[in-house]
Amino acid sequence: MALSQAEGAADRRRRRSGALSVRLMRLLIRSLIALAILGGLGWAALRPAASYLKERNRPRYREAAVARRTVSMVVNSTGEVKPVLSVSVGSFVSGPIIKLHVEFNDRVKKDQLLAEIDPRIYVAAVQRDKASLATRIADVERTKALLQQATNDENRSIALRKENPDFISQAEIDRFHFNRLSLKAQLDVADAAVEQAQATLENSEANVDYTKITSPVDGIVINRKIDPGQTLAAQFQTPELFIIAPDMDKKMYIFASVDEADIGFIREAQERRRPVHFTVAAYPDDLFTGEVEQIRFSSTVTSNVVTYPVVVAAPNADLKLLPGMTADLSFEIEEKPNVLCVPNAALRFYPEPRQVRTEDRKLLDGTETPDEEDQELSAKQKAEAGEKRNRRHVWVQEGEFLRAIEITTGLSDNRYTEIVKGDLEEGQKLVTGLQTAADAS
Fold it and tell me: Can you say whether the dihedral through the CA atoms of 350, 351, 356, 362 is positive or negative?
């Protein structure tokens, strides 16, 4: 009886343990199923989130299209406007200015009276020299009379000697002869004194003429440096009274300083008679046109920069171009219409290696070409390197990465560059930079 009760209790404990195991198993299975469902739901939600974050963090690029347009190569410089010729009018004589007949900007003709210097001391000198000349002429006449008398005395003495040698001695004949020769020499001196007095008179008369300042050319008075009553002193240095510019309404010069690296281009423009466009601050909306007239050989070195003077000639019929104005010039070297071009921004863009496909990353790390930075190149190698400099790369978006396209560039302006060779088509989009928040908005 006692054994049967013990077995029954053990059996009940087994049944309770089995039921507990079954409940634990079921709880475990339910938990695993719940975790699986939650994991599935989490994975299902994670993929769109990851895709969203990837798309959100993907770099976005600014792009510009390959297009056909006209490209002009120019060299820019500044210069000063000057007249073709500036004639300085000075004074040869000294004295106070008593009259001025012209003012600034007046048009004058050749030999027109500009100013007058007080002529009184020079007129007095003329009167003095006239009297001196008259004295010299009278002295000539006196010497001629004495010479004639001496000649007659000599002739009579010779006649008496022939008639009778005892009438006159040889000593007296010699005295008459040498007296005539002396008077003849005095006559030569008197004639020379007349010429000297005549030259002095002409000099004084010229000084009187110099008191009237006249214009040597037709032109415009661009500067007047004297005032009425001002006294001129011309003994040591010729004073400058006026500056006259002839033909200023026909042509003006612009003197520009061009860097030595651009002189070759300027010479090409001169040979091809390419136009030069420029503006001045006084008329910012007006575009003036000229051409290269001269490239001067006299170089100037400023802070180790060598420049050459280039003279540009421009018409000036309306007199808008005035001496001293500053001109901003653009020398047109060459122009090509309707050529395939890339924006210069596409040539300046330089991506990061992680943005570029694997095949093109060597272009960014410099492993495509040997490093020659530390090598000293010969002149021939430098010339060859200059020819290779036109080989460039542009970038196009291809999927998640950028792909490089090699091109050879030609003529370039400040916005576009000609494509001489390269696998590009009109309308193709090129990367020019990364979009900013402002671009995205």
Answer: positive
* Helix-then-strand count for the chain, H and E: 8, 20
Give residue limits of the domains in the chain.
Answer: 61-70+339-440, 75-83+245-337, 119-210
- Residue scoring higher pLDDT (372 or 219): 219
The CA distances from residue 122 to 56, 84, 256, 359, in Å, are 98, 36, 47, 96
**294: alpha, beta or left, given left = phi > 0 and alpha = psi -120 to 50?**
beta
Superfamily of domain covering 75-83+245-337:
Efflux pump adaptor protein, beta barrel domain (2.40.30.170)
Q: Are 431 and 395 in contact (CB under 8 A)?
A: yes
The topology (CATH level 3) of 61-70+339-440 is 2.40.420
Which pLDDT score is estimated for 168? 80
pLDDT attached to residue 386: 57
* pLDDT confidence of residue 371: 47
275 sits in which H/E element: strand 275-280
Q: Distance between CA atoms of 253 and 80, rounded to whole angstroms?
A: 8
Task: Find the length of the chain.
Answer: 441
DSSP 8-state secondary structure symbol assigned to residue 261: G
Placement of tokens 């974050």 in the chain: 53
Q: What average pLDDT does the structure give for the chain?
A: 85
Q: How far apart are CA 111 and CA 106, in angstroms?
A: 14
